[in-house]
Specification:
about 375 residues; 14 helices; single chain; 6-stranded parallel β-sheet; alpha/beta
Length: about 375
C-alpha cells in the first residue's frame, strides 16, 4: 500500500518499512501526490479537506497532533475516510511548558506555589496532567470544563464556571478549538474575561490561537499593565500579530508539545491505528523502542529558587521567547517560527532529568511536583 507522510514525523520509515512510504515536506503534500495513495499522515501544517483529497484514493488520514482543527471532520465523515489523531501523546510535554511558565512567574513574584490559586480551563489529557502537577506543588486549583460538567461526569462535580477563575493568580487554557455550537471555544478569552482577572494574574494559552480574541487582548493589555501573558499559540501562525507578540511577556512559536518523546509517542499511536485499519503486520517487530534519555539535573544550592531556575534551564522559555520576538520584529516571523520549532523538537521532558543532589524534602517535593525524576 502507498502512504504519503510529512517527512518531519519521526520513526515512520522504521515503523512502516514494509510499505511504500512517500515522505515529503508539509508544503509538498498536494492533490496530485495523493491521487494513488491509500493513507495520509500529516501534522498541523497541512489543511486536510475536500480541496486536498478530491479525486484521491485516500481511505485513512492520521495527524500526529492532539488537535484536529486543521482537519475538515464533517467532510471526512461524509466521504467515509477514517481519521486517527495523537491525542494525549504530548500531554506531559505541554504540562512541562506550563510548569516552566509557573516557575518563571514564581521567580518574578518571589511567591511559593502554596500561595497561588491556579485555574485550568479544559481538563482533558493535558489539563488533567497540569491539574495533577499544580496539586502536587501545593497550589489551590480550580478546574473549569463546561462540556464535562454538563455531561454529568461524576469526576467533574467540583468543577467551576469560567467566571469563578477571576480569583486566580494563574489561568492556563487547554481546550480544543470549536468555532460553533454549544461548546464553542473560539474567542473564549475575550475582553470581559481579561478585565475580570485580578492584578498581577498570569494567563497561559497553549491550546489554540483562536481561543484568544487577539483584538480584545491587544486592547486590554494596552490599558492593563498589571496583567501578564504567556502565549505559545497564535491565530495567524506562522505569522502572528506583531503587536500581540510584543505585549506578551513570553511568546513562543507553538512548541509547548514539542519534545522528542512526545513526537515518538505520536508517531507510534497513529501508525498503530493505521496498521489496525488496514489489517497489516504489527510494526513493533521492525523497530527499536525509544528509550527515554537520562540527564543529570544540577542544583547548586538548597535554595527554593534553584528549583524554579532548574526548570527554566531545561526548558528556557525566556531565551526562546526573546529569539522569537526579535524575529517577528525583523519581519522574519515565518522563518524563525519554523526554525525554533525544529530546534525544540529534540528537547527532553522533565521526567528525563533526574537529581542526585541531597536536597531537602521540600525541594524534592517541588521537583517531583514539576515532573522531574528524583533518582
Amino acid at each position: 500500500m502507498r502512504i504519503v507522510a510529512d517527512k518531519n514525523i519521526p520513526l515512520l520509515s522504521t515503523l512502516l518499512c514494509e510499505q511504500e512510504l512517500v515522505q515529503v515536506e508539509a508544503w509538498e503534500i498536494e492533490t496530485d501526490l495523493l491521487s494513488s495513495a491509500d493513507a495520509l499522515i500529516v501534522r498541523s501544517e497541512t489543511q486536510v479537506d475536500s480541496h486536498l483529497l478530491r479525486g484521491s484514493s485516500i481511505r485513512f488520514v492520521a495527524t500526529a497532533t492532539s488537535g484536529v482543527d486543521h482537519i475538515d471532520l464533517p467532510w471526512l465523515l461524509d466521504a467515509g475516510v477514517a481519521l486517527s489523531s495523537a491525542a494525549g501523546a504530548n500531554a506531559t510535554a505541554v504540562a512541562d511548558y506550563v510548569m516552566a511558565a509557573l516557575c518563571w512567574n514564581l521567580l518574578r513574584t518571589g511567591k511559593r506555589p502554596e500561595e497561588l490559586c491556579c485555574g485550568i480551563v479544559g481538563v482533558g489529557h493535558v489539563g488533567a496532567e497540569v491539574y495533577r502537577r499544580f496539586r502536587a506543588l501545593g497550589c489551590t486549583v480550580l478546574a473549569c470544563d463546561p462540556p464535562r460538567l454538563k455531561s454529568g461526569d461524576p469526576l467533574a462535580s467540583e468543577f467551576v464556571d469560567l467566571a469563578a477563575l477571576a480569583t486566580c493568580d494563574l489561568v492556563s487554557f487547554h481546550v480544543p478549538l470549536y468555532t460553533s455550537g454549544n461548546s464553542r471555544t473560539a474567542g473564549l478569552i475575550d475582553a470581559e474575561f481579561l478585565r475580570c482577572l485580578p492584578s498581577d494574574c498570569l494567563l497561559v494559552n497553549t491550546s489554540r490561537g483562536g481561543v484568544l480574541n487577539e483584538e480584545d487582548a491587544v486592547r486590554v493589555l494596552g490599558m492593563r499593565k498589571d496583567m501578564h501573558l504567556v502565549l505559545d499559540v497564535f491565530e495567524g501562525e506562522p505569522y502572528p500579530d506583531p503587536t500581540l507578540v510584543h505585549l506578551a511577556d513570553l511568546a513562543t512559536p507553538h512548541i509547548a508539545g514539542y519534545s522528542k518523546l512526545a513526537k515518538h509517542l505520536a508517531a507510534k499511536k497513529v501508525v498503530k491505528d493505521l496498521i489496525g485499519f488496514f489489517d497489516l503486520d504489527d510494526p513493533e517487530r521492525n523497530m527499536t523502542h525509544h528509550l527515554s534519555e537520562r540527564r543529570h539535573l544540577e542544583l547548586l544550592t538548597d535554595e527554593l529558587d534553584e528549583v524554579w531556575k532548574a526548570a527554566l534551564t531545561t526548558l528556557d522559555l525566556s531565551s526562546i521567547s526573546d529569539t522569537f520576538k526579535r524575529g517577528v520584529q525583523r519581519g522574519e516571523a515565518g522563518t524563525v517560527f519554523r526554525a525554533l520549532r525544529k530546534e525544540c523538537s529534540s528537547r527532553l521532558e522533565y521526567s528525563e532529568w533526574f537529581s542526585l543532589s541531597q536536597s531537602s524534602e521540600q525541594l524534592n517535593t517541588y521537583l517531583a511536583g514539576l515532573g522531574f525524576a528524583l533518582n
